[in-house]
Design brief:
CATH superfamily of the largest domain: TPP-binding domain
CATH architecture of the largest domain: 3-Layer(aba) Sandwich
Radius of gyration: 20 Å
Strand content: 5-15%
Number of helices: 12
Bound molecules: zinc ion
Structural class: alpha/beta
Distance between the termini: 24 Å
Number of strands: 9
Number of domains: 2
Length: 310
Amino acid sequence: MRLPWRTLTLHTAPVRRTCSEPAAVSSFVPACSSTDGPSLELLQDFVSRSRRLFVITGAGLSTESGIPDYRSEGVGLYARTDRRPMQHAEFIRSAKSRQRYWARNFVGWPQFSSHQPNCAHRVLQRWEDSGRLHWLVTQNVDALHSKAGQKKLTELHGCTHRVMCLGCGGISAREDLQRKFEALNPSWRAQAGAVAPDGDVFIEDEQVLHFRVPSCNDCGGILKPDVTFFGDTVKKTTVHFVHDRLAESDAVLVVGSSLQVYSGYRFLLAASESKIPITILNIGTTRADHLAELKVIGRCGEVLSLLQRL
Ligand SMILES: [Zn+2]
């Protein structure tokens, strides 16, 4: 029987925290009291019953690694700044926009690329090792699941650690592009500001004017991060692949996503239509709360690390 999720999110006795991340990280994690014991037990039961678990993750997972999300109340980028992410059409049509994007990305890269997986990523990777996890879909572009060793993984919106040529479709490592930037811009300096979820940082336009951006070595085409910018769509082959993995699954767990973007939300609609039970672990409300049989309010790393112990 499907229970209304609101009845399962009562906050009673707080449980002890077991996942401690660096203090600086917490500035990007929304305020949240510890998850209550009954919710944890229900979540444990949900995960334990599954033999082919489908997990979908979002920015809420990476805030505990020090990467801010866009939408969290008070601490997300939308709340803290008036900056908005790069739009696909703008990147394609405007050389100046590309120059600004890459200049900021160049400055932010050393810090952005150094972020490490947190205990939530590690727990999900262990579920893969133990055979419980059937497939993991992430909306994040930060490579933290890969860094944790996750193999049964689809990066729905791509990954900032890869670069794609819009001319020949060639894929190269973002780290290699960093060395080309350095070679082309030996005396260019800029002070990095806050780093966005996609690795963007904030630099004044005057500083950007002299930044040189290389083209593809093979065809001279435009280089773009291998990520789906806002306004672009996820490849149909990727969507079909994920739908197939979902159809093979027996339960869906959402971890750290508000599911506001349709590219991820559509899989919750599909799961609901196929009567695949859904549980959501997130601090804030999500677009799919009404589809879930269980909603657990809490920090991803803290809650998932407690599950192992139950
Ligand atoms: Zn090319």
